[in-house]
Amino acid sequence: MPCASRNPLPRSSSWPVLQTFLSCQENMSAPDIDMRQECPDDISAVSRVTAAAFLAAPHTTHTEHFIIVALRKAERLSVSRVATHNEQVVGHVAASPIKISGTNRGWYGLGPVSVLPSYQRRGIGSALVMDALRVLSSIGAGGCVVLDDPAFYERFGFKANSALTLGGVPAEYFMAVAFDASMPSGKVSYHEAFRAQSRLTLERTRRE
Ligand SMILES: CC(C)(COP(=O)(O)OP(=O)(O)OC[C@H]1O[C@@H](n2cnc3c(N)ncnc32)[C@H](O)[C@@H]1OP(=O)(O)O)[C@@H](O)C(=O)NCCC(=O)NCCS
To answer: How many Å apart are CA 33 and CA 90, to the nearest integer?
Structure first.
């Protein structure tokens, strides 16, 4: 199936900070990079880019590409956007629904986010994060969490919040951004696809 052409999203008026991000995006230093929705032809490239990006990453389980496949199979890959250069996938961002204290509150978890090592530090990762937040806002998400380095994610409005917790991780690495005035509280859980290790676990996730 051919890939859809670049797909601009409606701008949300519900989140003023997002508007600022979007206007900054016009000045991003990622020339010749297009951002669009993943299409079926991109699936193997997304796995390759994700595995390559995390190969030398500081915090990794090296299972991130399996997680994306498992989310897709479970129909929980709510956001799957690719960055392309000369029509080749060079970056990818995913987001999936989370539960807060066991309840679906319309919140999402950002990640994995991946940029091919040879394309890193050109603004593509930032553009992908902003693009994913824009998609989430446009589908009416209440907010988004991320588990990673605050040095990168705080610039997008993410902040650690003691009310929203994820077990077993240092609190400062688990951050949230609300798209409206309300910040929920509780224990966050990601979809079970985040336990995917390999094709075998993937098969199990699909059957459950
Ligand atoms: C994290 C990642 C997606 C960033 O992509 P990128 O295209 O290199 O990011 P950008 O060029 O937009 O970087 C913007 C800024 O973030 C900084 N930055 C990039 N990666 C960073 C990281 N892992 N930690 C802290 N800061 C980081 C850059 O130095 C740059 O800072 P500056 O604006 O002050 O110069 C990319 O490095 C990557 O794929 N890493 C491996 C996978 C990973 O760790 N993903 C994140 C967890 S899901």
So the answer is: 9
pLDDT per position as a tens digit, 130-185 = 999 999 999 999 999 999 999 999 999 999 999 999 999 999 999 999 998 889 99
Instruction: Please name which of 160, 130, 135 lies closest in space to residue 146, comparing C-alpha atoms.
Output: 160
CA geometry: angle at 79 spanning 18 and 34, to 5°?
A: 75
Ligand 1 center–CA 169 separation, angstroms: 20
Give the chain's domain count.
1
The neighbour count for residue 154, using CB atoms within 10 Å, is 13
2 part of a folded domain: no
Q: Tell me: the pLDDT tens digits for 56-86?
A: 898 888 999 999 999 999 999 999 999 999 9
What the block records as the tokens of 68 is: 């994306």
State the distance from the centre of ligand 1 to the C-alpha of 124, rounded, in angstroms: 9
Query: Can you give the pLDDT at residue 31?
Result: 73
Residue at 6 is within a domain: no
Place of tokens 């129909």: 75
Ligand 1 pocket, Cβ-based, cut-off 6 angstroms: 53-54, 57, 111-115, 120-126, 148-149, 151-152
- Using CA positions, which residue lies closest to atom 35 of ligand 1? 121
